[in-house]
Design goal:
The chain is an alpha+beta fold and 273 residues long. The protein is built from eight helices and ten strands.
């Protein structure tokens, strides 16, 4: 695969002695340790959030490769469920490239999550046949179900009706924003108690999903970082993993290309968490 530059060249960087380098590294290390402590505290506060009950009257039924399944079924015998809302709408030719970037990180985590009482499931509004075809193309193994016949994605603010979009702004990421797509990315977390009652414990959207992207964490360690500042939108460089080629090229001025079969764009801008 060719190595291509997607923004500006690295500027001339300061070069110092080994002793000066160690001193600078130790200074940054103190900030990194403080950031780690702050992240741990934020995670603790996240777990302390109040829960909301998912009312039994709202019975979500999903299409799965093994037939119909309720939200309770998706827990697969565990008490904790993480749902990734994958942007793949009815009639789309393929799933969103940016959601696919996230999904490339899922399979390796499944066995580890399962042994910590967590089930990870991906949900999209696309019909199951569309999902299965795209999943096969991408070589993924994680469980991916269709919410085509229910309001699940809409109720958890990951899908929007044409009427809502016609108003110009939607309720997304806990605010009212402009968004060009009827599908949006997100993750929702649920807990099921011993009585079988289900509770919604957390949802996050937009850049709140960054923590799920291992490749970004690697890039953050590299000298050029994510190298996205010169792009028209942050994920303009991302491709489906089977679309990177020897002549791969990123046009820094290119806007997001609307998925074929879809009347709207996904991931055409950045929304801060």
């Amino acid at each position: 695969m060719a190595t291509l530059r997607t923004s500006t060249e690295m500027q001339e960087h300061e070069v110092v002695s080994p002793e000066e380098w160690i001193a600078s590294r130790k200074e940054l290390l103190q900030k990194e340790k403080e950031f780690t402590r702050l992240r741990d505290e934020l995670s603790r506060q996240r777990r302390q959030l109040p829960w909301e009950r998912v009312e039994k009257a709202k019975e979500y039924v999903f299409d799965t490769p093994n037939g119909k399944a309720t939200l309770a079924d998706l827990f697969d015998g565990r008490s904790q469920l993480i749902v990734y809302h994958f942007m793949f709408g009815p009639g789309w030719e393929q799933g969103c490239p940016s959601c696919s970037f996230l999904a490339d990180h899922f399979d390796g985590s499944l066995v580890h999550l399962a042994n910590r009482d967590v089930t990870l499931v991906v949900v999209s509004r696309a019909p199951l046949a569309q999902i299965e075809a795209f999943k096969k193309r991408m070589g993924w193994r994680f469980k991916w179900v269709s919410s085509f016949g229910n309001d699940f994605n809409h109720d958890f603010h990951a899908s929007f009706t044409k009427e809502e979009l016609a108003n110009g702004k939607i309720s997304y990421n806990y605010g009212v924003v402009e968004f060009p797509s009827e599908e949006t990315p997100g993750a929702s977390v649920f807990y099921k108690d011993a009585r079988g009652d289900i509770f919604h414990t957390y949802s996050t959207y937009a850049r709140g999903l960054d923590i799920l992207i291992g490749a970004y964490n690697f890039l953050d360690l590299a000298p050029k970082g994510r190298d996205e500042d010169g792009l028209a939108f942050t994920m303009a460089w991302v491709r489906h993993h089977d679309k990177y080629t020897e002549d791969y090229f990123v046009d820094p001025k290119a806007q997001y290309a609307v998925p074929k079969g879809s009347g709207s764009s996904c991931c055409s801008g950045e929304h801060d968490s």
